[in-house]
Amino acid sequence: MSDSREQDVQNDKERYERKGQQLAAIGAFFAGTAVALGAFGAHGLKKVLSEAALTVYRTGVEYQMYHGLALLALGLGIRVLSSQVGTPTLLKRLNTAAIFLIIGTLIFSGTLYIYTLAGVRLAAMITPVGGVSFLIGWALIVIALIQNRRSS
């Protein structure tokens, strides 16, 4: 391998190690804030919101937690895989999937919080965009893993 190619490989490893670290941090942030928002909902909103609104709010918290944990796992997985040779396509695909999960979390959970806390009905109409982003992210993870298995 030429020196230039070796340097490119090393740069890719370092870049994906950083991306993995960032994704893990975002996942931990989403999970941690989901705990805080869940506690706020259970203790601070119980007397303020209707049971139906609380259910919608809890859905936002739950999906934020699920996807926060998924991002934490993806980030840690990307960090581990970044040191292995022959995984740049898998890393790229998993990173793209993670971006869709982040966007999905922000849109899906965020619009549910806006809808329940501020009563903005338009927010509820945007919520499905976040759901679609989740589905795309999960589909990309499945595709990445299947295609990586075939190329192994």
For this entry, give a set of tags.
transmembrane helix, DUF423 domain-containing protein, membrane, DUF423, mainly alpha, 4 helices, elongated
Structure description:
The protein has four helices and no strands. By secondary structure, it is mostly helical. It has one domain (3-151). It is elongated. The protein starts with a helix and ends with a helix.
Number of strands: 0
Bin the helical content.
Answer: over 70%
Radius of gyration: 19 Å
Protein structure class:
mainly alpha
> How many discrete domains?
1
Query: Element order, helices and strands?
Result: HHHH
Output mean pLDDT: 93
Please tell me what the overall shape is.
Answer: elongated
Strand content: under 5%
Q: Please give the alpha-carbon distance between the first and last residues.
A: 21 Å
Instruction: Note poorly predicted spans.
Output: none
Annotation field: number of helices: 4
Main sheet specs: none
How are the secondary structure elements laid out?
Layout: H1 3-44, H2 51-81, H3 88-118, H4 121-151
Helix pairs in contact: 1-2, 1-3, 2-3, 3-4
Family: Belongs to the UPF0382 family.
InterPro entries: DUF423 (IPR006696)
Main location: membrane
In short:
The model has no long low-confidence stretch (mean pLDDT 93). The chain contains 4 helices and no strands. It is elongated and about 65 Å long.
